[in-house]
Amino acid sequence: GRGPGPGSPASAAAAGGSGAGKPSGAGGGPSRRGKTGAALRGGADPGTLAARGLRVAYGGFTALDGVTLDVPPGRITAVAGPNGAGKSTLFHCLAGTLRPSGGQVLLAGRDVTRLAAHARTRLGIARTFQQLAVFPSLTVAENVRVGAEQGRIADPGAAERALRLLGLDGPVRSLPAAGLPTGTLRRVELARALAGSPRVLLLDEPAAGLDTGEVSALARVLRALAADGTALLVVEHDLDLVADLAHTVHVMAAGRIVASGPADRVLDPGSGG
């Protein structure tokens, strides 16, 4: 049982009941995943992803200018800011799809700066991208199983748990991804990331293209994952979602973090994003 187990807050959220939003308080006792994760990782700083002084420069342009932040387990950390602030560049540095010019990326204290994205996936860093990246000719279930094969733990049940958690375990599981609506494909992509039993989940604009009901369902799932001990980083334009979801918000401008703290303190309602 290394994914959200049947009795875990994540499963409760998938049911979408009246208590589904509750996991933000991390109630309900220790989950199976939390205990297993602690046993696997053993000791302090379990699963924290950290950026230390990250710099990215293209010619004369500085895209990231000394960015430092932590993405701790059991918390939802958000990065907000206008277009061109450096949010996506930071995301790609953390995911391993871009190597910084300077600084470090650390996972549980280990320097992973030079590791490629697939190697980071094996260590438990999963990601979903702003541009949907599903395999159109594969069925929903086959797409999700790809994530299980790429993940850090060989867990045959992980794909099924991810399908259940995201409400993809009905007839839709057998449909090819091609032609499915955006909201469904975002769930497929998230389920694929979760099927690898990640300890850190990086989400780039996860609410893009979703309607209000789908955004609410996404928020329930992300809260439940945090309650199960996953470290989450969300890069998001939707400031209402950020305010509703994040424990900590980092606001970026011109390649730097210019404000950090609880959402209600950092997000100025009059700023407009």
TrEMBL record:
Region named Disordered: 1-44
InterPro entries to which the protein is assigned, alphabetical: AAA+_ATPase, ABC_AA/LPS_Transport, ABC_transporter-like_ATP-bd, P-loop_NTPase
Composition bias type Gly residues, residue spans: 16-31
ABC transporter domain boundaries: 49-273
Lineage: superkingdom: Bacteria
A GO cellular-component term linked to this record: plasma membrane
Cross-referenced SMART domains: AAA
GO MF, one example: ATP hydrolysis activity
Sorted UniProt keywords: ATP-binding, Nucleotide-binding, Transport
Pfam families the record matches: ABC_tran
PANTHER family tied to this protein: ABC TRANSPORTER ATP-BINDING PROTEIN, CONSERVED COMPONENT OF ABC TRANSPORTER FOR NATURAL AMINO ACIDS-RELATED
Protein name in UniProt: ABC transporter ATP-binding protein
Organism listed in the record: Streptomyces triticiradicis
